[in-house]
Fold this protein.
Amino acid sequence: MADSWVNSAERIGSDLHLEWEPSGPGGRRAALTRALRDAVRTGRLAPGTRLPPYRSLAADLGVARNTVADAYAELVAEGWLTARQGSGTRVAERTEPPRTAPPRNAVHRTHPPRRPAVRARYDLRQGTPDASAFPRAAWLASYRRALQQAPDEVFGPGDPAGRIELRTALAEYLARARGARTDPGRIVVCSGFAHALRLLFAGRVLRGPLAVEAYGLPFHRELLTTAGVRTVPLPLDEHGARVEELGRERAVLLTPAHQFPTGGPLHAERRAAVVDWARARDGVVLEDDYDGEFRYDRKPVGALQSLDPERVILIGSVSKSLSPAVRLGWMVLPQRYVGDVLAAKGEREAWASVLDQLALADLIDSGSYDRHVRRMRQRYRRRRDRLVAALAEHAPHIEVSGVAAGLHAVLRLPPGSERSAVKAATWQGVALDGLAEYRHPAARDADMAVHDGLVVGYATPSEGAYGAALEALCGALPPDPG
Ligand SMILES: Cc1ncc(COP(=O)(O)O)c(C=O)c1O
């Protein structure tokens, strides 16, 4: 895991998504300067956006601190950035931001399943972040500030688009950390991914049938079925969804950064291909970016939405980054859907607490959200490393996949052994799910590259219980057949 980009400077940094080619012409410094300049020139990084300190960006990218310092200095000299003592390096303010619309057709390269009530000593079911790590103090401080500063109108009926403070903070954050191309006008706040799906389909903004990945969250499929939407399984292989097999549907739901639950990113060619498909069919891609912040290697997997903001709906929430109890999420919409989604929401905000929205805006603006994500990334990565090490020691014949990102991994099992492995785990006091729980009922065997497997969530067990949980898990795995 030498390529990991989680580093000791976690606490002081902030995230910056960059698509760059370190071996490009002119070496690393030139490549980094180009990538930063592009991000500013295209308007992805808005005027005033604060860039990460040298040390944290250098550690994230695996380059010398001077490389970052030189790139920043060059861009300051060119007028793209400003550097001021005490306020760090920021994107320069311009009277006329160059937020030019991309040319048409331009491709920019750049709940868990329903669970039985289980009495288990060790809960390794995927789905929730570490509840003990909710940033209580930071949330309280943000809530207090938000309340103190809120004008009286905040306590009246809320704008269904969401508070402008939050939409502005999200636009800056999603552009900076996820590479999204957005502005507050195309963001609609909601109470999470599930709510976004309800608004889009029960609200008749979009119509079925909807293509979905052959493995996915049953809860979301059920929600769609309840809304009268037929879902059609899309085959999966090691490069993600086989988007070339999209049929007559005009909408597809994908987890491009981290296929849920099998774990790989959607291949670059397929990212481009699915956007081309949507353009050709006048269709739309729904991007479920449920755990995009938690990547442990240096390969940037930004939002697919950046390829074409008019063809992709980027949907995210704080359910993995903070807690699913907060119930706050967002949609970054193609302009043509904004009115319909607002109409589906109704005349006033009925879902996402306006005060929580203001608190989240403050959390993001104050840097506390970045600090929390970076701290959690480090913690989850350590957990992931312990899982991988335990398997290498006690069950080296079991292949583990999907470990470059997220809060869960998939242990691949010999064909036909999944059910007995889940039972054996139960006997060992370990609660977890087999892959079968996530399989679309209409998926054929040929639709999936992985058949038997265990989905192991590593975020929730307490620090003290984690070692014993791993031991119990390894004890439940099928023996090496060789
Ligand atoms: C695949 C997937 N999508 C989306 C979400 C987020 O759902 P929500 O925002 O409704 O809590 C989750 C769970 O956190 C998930 O596992």
In short: Confidence is low (pLDDT under 50) at residues 1-5, 7-11, 97-118. The chain has three domains: 10-91, 122-130+370-476, 134-366. Residues 368-394 form the longest helix (27 residues). The chain is about 35% helix and 15% strand.
